[in-house]
């Protein structure tokens, strides 16, 4: 996710692809810990044919400044595969202005 301003959010698409030679059944996802959230996913269970893929929307909404990581678990028929999510919350930029007035001597 790279850098996201604290108090805002960014959504990315996670692609789950079956690169094997046989169909794979995905039974669901284990929700990652905050500040990450699954915001869209297909209906589970889902059978992915060889070469097929599906997408999952994941949102990062940092509430504090600093790095954040969390795994999202992809539950398959025989095991759960962990995918690491990472992002960094950054402070909102501050605006400043300076006013320079000319000095007029008489």
**DSSP strand (E) fraction?**
over 45%
Radius of gyration: 22 Å
Number of extended strands: 8
Number of helices: 0
SSE order, as H and E?
EEEEEEEE
* Shape, per Cα inertia axes: elongated
Helix content: under 10%
Backbone structural class:
mainly beta
Biggest sheet statistics: 5 strands, mixed
Q: Average the pLDDT over all residues and give the rounded result.
A: 92
Across the major sheet, the strand order is 1-8-7-3-5
Catalogue the unreliable spans.
none
Distance between the termini: 59 Å
Topology overview:
Layout: E1 3-5, E2 10-17, E3 24-30, E4 36-40, E5 46-48, E6 53-60, E7 66-76, E8 80-90
Parallel strand pairs: 1-8
Antiparallel strand pairs: 2-6, 3-5, 3-7, 4-6, 7-8
